[in-house]
Amino acid sequence: MTRRQLHLNAFLMTTGHHEASWRLPESDPHAHVDLAHYVRLARIAERGTFDSLFLADGPQLWSSVAQRPAGALEPITLLTALATATEHIGLIATASTSYNSPYNLARKFATLDHISGGRAGWNIVTTAGAEAARNFGLDAEPAHAERYARAAEFLDVALKLWDSWEDDAIVADKAAGVWGDDAKIHPPRHQGRYFSVEGALNVPRTPQGYPLLVQAGSSEDGKRFAARYAEAVFTAQQTIEDARAFYADLKSRAVAAGRDADHIKVLPGIVPVIGSTEAEARANERVLEDHIVHTHGVDRLERLLHLDPGTLDLDGPLPADLPPESAIEGAKSRYTLIVELARRERLTVRQLIGRLGGGRGHLTFAGTPEQVADTIGLWFGSGAADGFNIMPAVLPSGLDAFVEHVVPILRARGLLRTEYGSSRRTLRERYGLPRPANQHVLAPALV
Amino acid sequence: MTRRQLHLNAFLMTTGHHEASWRLPESDPHAHVDLAHYVRLARIAERGTFDSLFLADGPQLWSSVAQRPAGALEPITLLTALATATEHIGLIATASTSYNSPYNLARKFATLDHISGGRAGWNIVTTAGAEAARNFGLDAEPAHAERYARAAEFLDVALKLWDSWEDDAIVADKAAGVWGDDAKIHPPRHQGRYFSVEGALNVPRTPQGYPLLVQAGSSEDGKRFAARYAEAVFTAQQTIEDARAFYADLKSRAVAAGRDADHIKVLPGIVPVIGSTEAEARANERVLEDHIVHTHGVDRLERLLHLDPGTLDLDGPLPADLPPESAIEGAKSRYTLIVELARRERLTVRQLIGRLGGGRGHLTFAGTPEQVADTIGLWFGSGAADGFNIMPAVLPSGLDAFVEHVVPILRARGLLRTEYGSSRRTLRERYGLPRPANQHVLAPALV
């Protein structure tokens, strides 16, 4: 049996995950709309034999563009361009179940899966925030539970659409003049609470059957959803204890839902800041912190914590009377993580902004390549992770440093593939997951 | 002043526009989901210095896949992949105003325009048919006038979104820590009959400002819409007289709407079937006709004419008591064109199916390269066309034949560019159109 190996995902974000990264001399402030920038990043990640790369997304522009690069190319479109510039790496796009229709979105992912030869993944989000809602005819954000109920129905419809062609529906009998077999087309005829979708998808079943299903919400609703649908989960965890608890909880929920624990991969985020010595790594981290504009950080933290503008004191602690997570309609689990981090480490608002500047709640780790590899190996080896969501503070240099210096150590330790090889081609194969059967085709044993 | 030259658009459709093209030995019946097939076509068109290529679309699968290749990759996604495989040619995707939301669609086209360096075009359709409606939560197709009212509001919102960033909104002042100028961001704050869209697009203004706006409806509603918004119009015309009348009508409508007649380009469709002699061309055409399955043709014609199944007699004429165009909620002008063609030429249903098999109502022309070039030159030179929508009966061979044999004649006659050159880079520049001003920026003379 093959030894268990890490799954690595490169989480790409313009000039890097650190909010001040765009201010460094090396950074291009127009990178967010530059295809060549993303092609460069994708090729670095492919050099590092990553399983996949990933783009976050939300269908809105934040209220101010002053603070840092705002806006982004639409992920499915951008990843299609990257599909043609790469050969092996998986391509995971974020898309919202609240602000798309199942027919259009299922079709776009099917198209990306065909074009990329089976490398498409969908990070399923329900999209928090009133800004997005107001771009789609709503006055306010739908309630958290409502968004997840819609998401579950969306997934059911999308799965019906992706299975609406059997794999062998195309007959292509030129002599008889018969192209397809209508008996192998299965229109969803779905009538639900949120959606009515009558007809079959107008794209044949794809190399993967459907895109790898990814999820990143860690609220109670989010975990329930992940246990039912997700094949990979991105999560923010600050301590190995929390990560172990999350990992065990999610795997057991998946088993309770009748799934194989091995068919849901858990990838915590890590923001590595690498130096050839620990002191150099810390100095690199300080350069980034020195570029933070603290008034911007206060704005953003107040938004994240749902506080009125002007509530926070830069050199004081967080207020003692913050509302409980249950009162938050937005990103619930991130809220709790940030509040707990500030209280556990007794951080001032200024210190908290410094800690969040790099990873918005994900684990930031400054150290040598060996130290980064040690941490990854420790979490991977002790039930806290199946792999990692690598979130470089600065791009492309931080990804390049990871691939140049950390990847060789992981390979030498047998934790990471040394090449893609030819036997596994699809994204789902890279993650060690089976190709899903079509819901309309009985398993051979049952026929 | 430069001599007026043809604008050529390559209308790509899987194995070709002839319904039986997929049955030829040369054709790949899986071409419709094969990126390499489309890359090959795009590169042939670019060799022929075409202005653009184009994909039709509808968000539904027809009720039977037996007859010929059904379904298609989503056009914006596919064209994004083609953007990376080409350098010069424009990329026009069809998308529906009835079954998309303005924020998502405006963003996708903005993304394609950035990725392609200003080569995006949008063929605006309102999407006829109940099949599509039932994939998006509706029981029946919205009325024709209702679809066009929604389309007009959709365009107004999309234009607001594309103009929501001024061209110089990105300041990128690293030293001061200021990335963008909030005063140059203009949220639409649109509250209309069909849409409410509050916030700015999350993509900066694009190389072209917005995609080239293309339209192909020739009904009364369609022409009114085109006169107001369209920069290029695809149209089906069977005779040069009809084409001249359409051309003159559309230009005068545009002028009446306060536009420059030269800023709306009219491109009739032509299905060239080429042979080295006229007899060879006719023989090529007959091979295609011999592959038509007539029962399929009857089904399709009954659908096009909104007749009950079993109404038509293969060897009789069309029924005398067909309803008037005003009673048709679908593709109105195509309906009238087909009925008039059958009556003018006294065609049986079988003969009509043969005539429609290649171009679904577009002008089918079998001849030598010189004859094809003569017809193109005649229409172009006598007020019937600004260029042509080239619709090869078989792909890729028909496009290749056009580029190899007709294009050199057009170039020798000074009717077509011999190379793309470096001064015009965007699709709008190729069509001889100005880059649109941002609606939020006063013209210099007015400041």
Automatic annotation (TrEMBL), chains A, B:
Residues 28-384 form the Luciferase-like domain. Gene3D superfamilies: Luciferase-like domain (3.20.20.30). It comes from the Bacteria. One of its GO terms (molecular function) is oxidoreductase activity, acting on paired donors, with incorporation or reduction of molecular oxygen. Pfam families: Bac_luciferase. Keywords: Flavoprotein, FMN, Monooxygenase, Oxidoreductase. FMN binds at D57, T94, H144, Y148, S218, S219. Belongs to the NtaA/SnaA/DszA monooxygenase family. NCBIfam families: FMN_nitrolo. This is Putative monooxygenase YxeK.
